Amino acid sequence: MTEVVLETMIGESDAQRLVRTKAPSFRLVRSELTYRPYSGFVHRLDLPRGRSRRVHTLVDRFNGKASVTGPWQTAAALDPRGRRLDEPQWGSLSFAEARRRALKAVAAAAPPLQPRAASPRPVDERLGHPTVWKPGWVLDGVVGGRDVRIFVDAVDGHSVVDDD
């Protein structure tokens, strides 16, 4: 079984810039690059007229959410800081359950079949990684006098404010 580390595509200054597009008054107090555990899969999805395409999915090992992604850019032999396989908040999502959720995400993303097609669209798993480390920035700062913690995905730039 292999581990994969996704390449950091969004640097610290870019992450801050992305946050400031939504909250111009954001003032950074602290930032840290962290890695979140996922399981990753690559599937071949058969399309009409004998064509096929590769579909990449990631399943979050904390909350079980499956997402269809673009092809992964992997970092060369990197050992991410702060990663640990024995984190108690990983939950109990098994690799088999991650695989099932990934297949469901692929099926949901597939173009609809013609109504006359009686059989389901074939999907073949080509690759499965039990552990894929996805980088993200944790930005602690202040917006309008309020302390905030913002997570910025270092692969695609998506951001989420931590409400805790």
Written description of the protein model:
With 164 residues, the chain is α+β, with helices and mostly antiparallel strands. It has 2 helices and 7 strands; from the N terminus they run E-H-E-E-E-H-E-E-E. Strands 1, 2, 3, 4, 5, 6 and 7 form a 7-stranded mixed β-sheet that branches. The longest helix is centred in the middle third of the chain and has 15 residues. The mean pLDDT is 84.
Summarize the structure.
This protein has 164 residues and is α+β, with helices and mostly antiparallel strands. It has helices spanning 12-22, 95-109, and strands at 3-5, 27-46, 52-60, 66-69, 123-143, 146-153, 159-161.
Shape summary? elongated
Helix percentage range? 10-25%
Largest sheet: 7 strands, mixed
Mean pLDDT comes to 84
Approximately how much beta-strand content do the residues carry?
Answer: 35-45%
| Strand and helix order | EHEEEHEEE
Could you give the distance between the termini?
Answer: 35 Å
The helix tally amounts to 2
Write down the oligomeric state: single chain
Annotation keywords:
164 residues, 7-stranded mixed beta sheet, 16% helix
Protein topology:
Elements: E1 3-5, H1 12-22, E2 27-46, E3 52-60, E4 66-69, H2 95-109, E5 123-143, E6 146-153, E7 159-161
Parallel strand pairs: 1-5
Antiparallel strand pairs: 2-3, 2-5, 3-4, 5-6, 6-7
